[in-house]
Amino acid sequence: MVGANVGGVQTGLGSMTPQVVGWVEDLSSDERHAMDTWIEEIRTMVSTPARLAPRDRVAREYTIKDRETVRDPSDGSIKFTKFSCAGFVFWCYDACSIVLLDRAHMPPLDVAAAAAAFNLALEAIPALAQRERLPPEGPWHLMLPGYLFRALARQTDVRTPYIPTQADAHYP
């Protein structure tokens, strides 16, 4: 997992200078294969037309929730799955049975903390809440990159789900 602070130094279209890196040591070949398989499965579900502008692709493919499944309204079949950056990493590890975070214990984020976490003006939160179908006043229980970096930086068994705190939202 590579992280850059939101609004960090741009090094080119779609890239940023990383400030933090985290990983699980000693993945087995079966675990690596499970992750590769999961990534390929997700790749086959990406249906965004290449002609969409980058901003439109972000709106279609990204969510601040860890994951959201988009279904076809006519038959309920899965069209594609959206992820947050942290969610994509979390679910990739989950595919090989490594659960990095205890999802049942995500700390609550009030509107100000959510705005800070996503580098947004407070005025942008109502529109974001509406788009993401979240309560406008909060609290929101979202998976943030800082939680994953803290989970991966532990000296103890990183294969045990980490219970994040509000202070873990900020990294490095």
3D architecture notes:
The chain is globular, with a radius of gyration of 17 Å. The strands form three sheets. A two-stranded antiparallel sheet has the order 1-4. With 172 residues, the protein is α+β, with helices and mostly antiparallel strands. It starts with a strand and ends in a 20-residue tail after the last helix. The chain has helices spanning 29-44, 54-61, 85-94, 111-117, 125-132, 145-152, and strands spanning 2-3, 10-12, 15-16, 20-21, 67-71, 78-83. Residues 1-14 have low confidence and may be disordered. The protein contains six helices and six strands; from the N terminus they run ββββααββαααα. Helices cover 33% and strands 12% of the residues.
Secondary structure: elements and pairs:
Layout: E1 2-3, E2 10-12, E3 15-16, E4 20-21, H1 29-44, H2 54-61, E5 67-71, E6 78-83, H3 85-94, H4 111-117, H5 125-132, H6 145-152
Strand order of the largest sheet: 1-4
Shape: globular
Number of strands: 6
Indicate the proportion of strand residues.
5-15%
Average pLDDT figure: 80
Structural class: alpha+beta
Oligomer: single chain
- What is the C-alpha radius of gyration, as a whole number of Å? 17 Å
How many helices? The count is 6
Task: State the end-to-end distance.
Answer: 13 Å
What pattern of helices and strands is seen along the backbone?
Answer: EEEEHHEEHHHH
